[in-house]
Design goal:
It is a single chain. This protein is of the alpha+beta class. Helix content is 31%, strand content 21%. The protein contains 16 helices and 22 strands. Helix 1 links the parallel strand 1 and strand 2. Helix 12 packs antiparallel against helix 15. The radius of gyration is 23 Å and the shape is globular. The two termini are 36 Å apart.
Length: 499
């Protein structure tokens, strides 16, 4: 798809229409553009994307019967924004659930794979017996975890790190062996810095209301991972048979995430997307003066920045330096994914689950292994296995300095040790996402509140993306839609077509 050649600026003789620009063509920017066009098709809408394609890190590659996801390969149905959007795009019938025969996760314990105990979902053990029967924890570790029922709730209301919260309630061993690897698979973060208020606030709420997370789970309540404060009394019932992630709540488009990206792009007005068009500078507000890397100038009435926070910080330097500094202070981590295709017979110790998470205490060179071919149909040819090995993150950033060939070698060695991989793979592919994972450190919620206060002073302007209020596809979509609504409402009567 090549960028159209039209200008953002309407020719002098054209009737004046309200113009809105969206900078960034990832899932957040696309969701914002689709929302605006659906509700205000009369707007002169332009989406500016610096790269040569839409979708950001979401991308699917098809090759010889393999369907390879470059980043996220599924999203939850519990948070409604992605599912609702798919319905409006006509993709509801294309969403497929995970394979019920393999809804299991594994964790490494001293080099051996152990199933995550049934009923243990993040921080809410709904069943104690599977944990007591599991070899993952020592007898003392099991006793300390069970004693969580008697640990009083924390009285202080200031932010707390994930590590502090978990060790305080469940003990160090449960943190090291179970909870850190499960949370690490979501946020690729340093748990000693990860904010509970910003990432898992519902568990704080359960602690306040029930005094114990185990008692809360036994009473039929659980909290979802995300970044939106829970309303008291609105926690959901837990599936006591779940293990690790609640895989029954996850879906994906039949043809991969690219299907969602393409469906969004197809709903936008003709010639509204400009690829390979970086924005170099933004001034004013409102109206907003945009300078493109090509030297072209544009003036727009409404503006949405849907880029990663470091890019947004650079663009907003001349608009609001304090806002730019706040955005620039949000830490980001990187990750590499080594995709490996093999014959199933090459795996001497195959697993019957969707993946493996690796505790940092194991001191291995990988974060996790995802078995894509067991999650969804159509991801690998018959008799083949498609694996994705994750490396790097906030705890091992030095690995990203390795060459692609070195990362491939690390992944193959780990697969050999853990799954008994023999021979050479059918193919490998290294995907790098450096600096793409925002880190919600302690104090993040207060920082976001200040950012939103600054944004509120800028009129028809909004930020979208995963750096502020939630990671994952549903939260990115919600962010884009909320940004679009904010700009639309700020434009007011100017955005309403005349009768």
């Amino acid at each position: 798809m090549s960028p159209p050649s039209h200008s953002i600026l309407a020719p002098p003789q054209a009737p004046r229409r309200v113009r809105v620009a969206i900078v960034g063509g990832g899932i957040s920017g696309l969701a914002a553009a689709q929302w605006l066009h659906e509700r205000a098709p009369h707007l002169d809408l332009t989406l500016l994307e610096a790269s040569g394609r839409l979708g950001g890190i979401l991308q699917t590659t098809a090759r010889d019967g393999w369907l390879i996801e470059h980043a996220a390969d599924m999203f939850t149905t519990r948070d409604p924004w992605a599912v609702d959007l798919c319905g409006r795009l006509g993709l509801a019938h294309e969403l497929i659930g995970t394979n019920p025969a393999y809804r299991q996760a594994y964790v490494i314990r001293r080099g051996r794979l152990r199933p995550v105990p049934a009923g243990f979902t993040l921080l809410a053990p709904a069943r104690i017996w599977p944990i007591l029967a599991s070899p993952i924890l020592s007898p003392w570790g099991k006793l300390r975890l069970a004693a969580e029922c008697f640990i009083p709730p924390r009285r202080a209301s200031d932010d707390e790190s994930l590590q502090s919260f978990v060790v305080r309630r469940f003990g160090r061993e449960a943190f090291d062996r179970l909870i850190q690897p499960l949370i690490g698979g979501i946020y690729t973060a340093d748990p000693a810095q990860l904010s509970m208020q910003a990432t898992l606030p519902q568990f704080l709420d359960l602690e306040r209301r029930h005094g114990s997370l185990i008692r809360a789970a036994w009473q039929g309540e659980v909290a979802r991972p995300g970044a939106v404060p829970a309303e008291p009394g609105h926690a959901k019932p837990i599936d006591a048979s779940a293990s690790g992630a609640r895989y029954g709540l996850f879906v994906a488009p039949r043809q991969g995430m690219q299907q969602l990206v393409d469906a969004l792009a197809a709903k936008l007005p003709p010639n509204s997307v400009r690829l390979s068009t970086p924005v170099q500078r933004i001034r004013g507000g409102p109206p907003w003066n945009l300078t493109l890397a090509s030297g072209e100038q544009a003036v727009v009435d409404g503006l949405i920045i849907a880029t990663p926070a470091p890019v947004a910080a650079q663009l907003l330097h001349d608009v609001d330096r304090e806002l730019a500094a706040l955005l620039g202070s949000i830490a980001h981590a990187g990750c590499a994914v080594v995709v490996v295709g093999v014959d199933r017979q090459q795996l001497q110790r195959p697993i019957h689950g969707f993946g493996i998470v690796v505790p940092a205490i194991e001191r291995r060179r990988i974060l996790a292994i995802s078995v894509s071919s067991l999650k969804f149909p159509g991801r690998a040819p018959e008799g083949k296995a498609l694996l994705r090995v994750f490396l790097g993150g906030a705890l091992q950033p030095e690995l990203l300095a390795q060459s692609d060939s070195a990362l491939e070698q690390i992944a193959l060695e780990e697969l050999h040790e853990l799954l008994g991989l023999t021979g050479q793979p059918l193919f490998t592919q290294v995907l790098r996402w450096e600096g793409k994972m925002p880190q919600y450190h302690v104090g993040h919620c207060q920082k976001v509140q200040t950012i939103q206060q600054r944004v509120a002073q800028l009129g028809a302007f909004a930020l979208a993306g995963n750096a502020l209020e939630g990671v994952g596809i549903p939260f990115c979509i919600r962010s884009g839609q909320a940004a679009a609504q904010r700009v639309w409402e700020a434009l007011g009567a100017a955005a309403t077509p005349r009768p």
